[in-house]
Amino acid sequence: MLSRLPRQHHRKIATNTELDQEEFDTxxxxxxxxxxxxxxxxxxxxxxxxxxxxxxxxxxxxxxxRLSPSFFNLGSSTSADEVPDMVxxxxxxxxxxxAKKGKRGVGPAGFWSVSLVRKIEMDDSTTQYLYKVFSPxxxxxxxxxxLLGLEVPKxxxxxxxxxxxxxxxxxxxxxxxxxxxxxxxxxxxxxxxRIRLEGELMEPRGIWYTSGIExxxxxxxxxxxxxxxxARLIANGFMVESxxxxxxxxxxxxxxxxxxxxxxxxxxxx
Length: 270
Ligand SMILES: Cc1cc2nc3c(=O)[nH]c(=O)nc-3n(C[C@H](O)[C@H](O)[C@H](O)COP(=O)(O)OP(=O)(O)OC[C@H]3O[C@@H](n4cnc5c(N)ncnc54)[C@H](O)[C@@H]3O)c2cc1C
Known about the structure:
Number of strands: 9
Order of helices and strands: EHEEEEEEHEEHH
Strand order of the largest sheet: 5-6-7-4-8
Bound molecules: flavin-adenine dinucleotide
Number of domains: 2
Strand content: 15-25%
Oligomer: single chain
């Protein structure tokens, strides 16, 4: 049996001490198990491993300012127009961060990318620029001041505790910050996630998992292929079961023989 506590109704269910319960032949878990708020009873024989996602802070903001050449060490003769619209960072030669994660896993640049998404001509004939930043942590006021070439107030030098919302609306006219679990750290591994979460002859049965692929690669195409793969295997299972059912009838198999045959066919799916 699958117990589901929809997140949006969590509180309501807790106060009513009610739980929706229904039985299914087949359940497809199509979201990373670790974020799903789903539990199984009896417990899964093969619960999925936790996917080691990168925590990605995505910051979108608009500003009348261009990116500062000095922030990218481009020299004083470089104009703001010459700063690339997209900057992707990498590691300096000889720097190896090994398996470090988060802020320690990004390298000395401290961010992964900055890009100009769009130039917006305003009704009052001024120009705003929409930027996107990918970083391992929330951006700070001091960092953003450097990026846009704003003067950093003396009190902020060496201090990095305030968010970008503390900047003037004249410098950052709009912003939106979101944290994503975007893609996995590619750690060496000996095996890949199973597509079926049940044990070979144990209950619960018929539990399929599409998001195991995300521990290897996180992309729409690969997840769609997982869905297709699971749908095909479920359909195959139904066809085999119905064929076995007629064999049982025609051959007069005992229940034990029938179950044994079913288990053997089921094991071939792994
Ligand atoms: C920031 C970011 C950028 C990305 N960029 C790209 C890209 O450029 N190209 C690309 O190919 N891929 C990209 N991906 C990866 C891509 O989005 C995923 O691989 C893909 O969405 C996985 O599809 P899915 O249907 O398996 O899962 P999801 O799209 O994650 O869908 C799972 C659904 O299940 C719902 N859910 C969760 N728990 C429950 C519950 N208890 N009950 C009911 N519903 C539940 C969720 O709300 C969600 O709607 C990106 C991902 C992120 C986070």
